[in-house]
Amino acid sequence: MMGLSSHPELQSLFFAIFFFIYIAALLGNITITTIITSDSRLHTPMYFFLVNLSVLDICCTTAAIPKVLQIIESKEKTMSYLECMAQMCLFTSALSTELLLLTVMAYDRYVAICHPLHYTTIMSRKTCVLLAATVWILGFSNSVMHTSLILRLKFCQRNIIDHFFCEVPPVLKAACSDTHLNNVIVIVADVILGMACFTLTVISYTYIISAILKIRSADKKKKAFSTCASHLTVVSLFYGGVIYTYIRPGSGNDPETDKVMSAVYSIVSPVLNPIIYSLRNKEVINALKKLFP
């Protein structure tokens, strides 16, 4: 696992950065989950999905970063085949589920803003649980499909993965057998999960912005636009990185660029999500003050 070994003089700095980001992501998402679950006023569809997002962010960072820290500290920079497959399966599952969940969250905001009178009927508790269960099942199924196809491949005795954790595209590049089928499936899944979900999210926010423009109060309009801009920023970073990494699995794109893009959705997004989605929300801040007076 080459990871960040091309800069041996910066290994201590990389370790400190990854460790700090992991702790920040854990604390931020655990705090949001604790606040929402302990305050009955936050037991609404929006915050229910935020809890799911926080759990996914914890899974995503935990699947990748602890092993990265171990590899940075290790002299051999090695990872067993089973560890690699397990990490790839868990990470891909969390990644796929988060893509779907972000789309559901955009739909929830669309219903809340564009159809407020029917919100409680459309987004009932049963519907929310069903939507959450569906995205988790679909995300896990997508991961199992990719992992199963990769398990059929042959790998050379000495494998070098130019990445800092096991992810589908770099693992495919290390295979000795034909990966054409895998590459096709990756592209198809990326189009369905990535581009389709992103398109649906943009459509939802288009309707949301259209509804906001009809608001007469300047303060309410500014607040609504600010919220939409924050959400779309995180969504764009997440989707952009995933689509870039997975849409060209067989091409000769720069490995260093791939690492940066992977870091955006595997490390940066889990840290930013608690801030942008929740900690800027007055209801969450008030609940936090109540929990820790």
From TrEMBL:
What domain of life does the UniProt record list for this protein's source?
Eukaryota
Question: G-protein coupled receptors family 1 profile domain location, by residue?
Answer: 28-277
Q: Which UniProt keywords apply?
A: Cell membrane, G-protein coupled receptor, Membrane, Olfaction, Receptor, Sensory transduction, Transducer, Transmembrane, Transmembrane helix
- Gene Ontology CC annotations of this record: plasma membrane
Instruction: Name the membrane topology term.
Output: Multi-pass membrane protein
Q: Where in the cell is it found?
A: Cell membrane
Q: Listed GO molecular functions? A: G protein-coupled receptor activity; olfactory receptor activity
Keyword DNA-binding (UniProt): no
Membrane-crossing ranges are 12-35, 47-65, 85-107, 128-145, 191-213, 225-247, 259-279
> Does the record carry Membrane as a key word?
yes
Record-stated family: Belongs to the G-protein coupled receptor 1 family.
The name on file for this protein is Olfactory receptor
What is the gene called? Answer: LOC117348605
